[in-house]
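Entry:
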Amino acid sequence: MPVQGYFAASAVALLIAGCAIPVGSPAPLPSTLAGASAGKYSATEARIFDLINAERRHQGLPALVYDPQLDRMAKIQAENMARFQKMAHTIPESELPTLGDRARYAGYPFGRLAENIALGYPNAETVVQGWMNSSGHRRNILDSDVGETGIGIARSSAGGLYYCQVFGRRLTSL
């Protein structure tokens, strides 16, 4: 099998369904958090952002807006997945194991949250294509109830690229 075909097959096999996670009661937050490097993959993150918004426009939906708090959450999760070499929405051994924990840490007042993750894709085009070919991830990307997003990418010590995109809608007062 050609190397590109191997990576594509591996990435598809490692892609898990996107999750819209109901968030429970707040957990204690750490006072500091190591990791979550900013800027290392910014060009790829920007390309993912553009491709996701092109998919939304194609479906008649408004573009998502970049949000620094959601971006921080996505970078934290990408770094956690890379550090623990585990592709999962919840990583119990990390300081911020759940999406809700990361939202509270980042100070994002959420009314709705969802998260897409992936491992092993070589570039923005292939990860977005993989997400669009997965019903759960596609649902998150095309969700009309979210309007903001953030994206993170991290590389593990073994070389795997971990991707995370967080979608949100802020809680509005009644």
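Residues 1-17, 19-38 have pLDDT under 50 and may be disordered.
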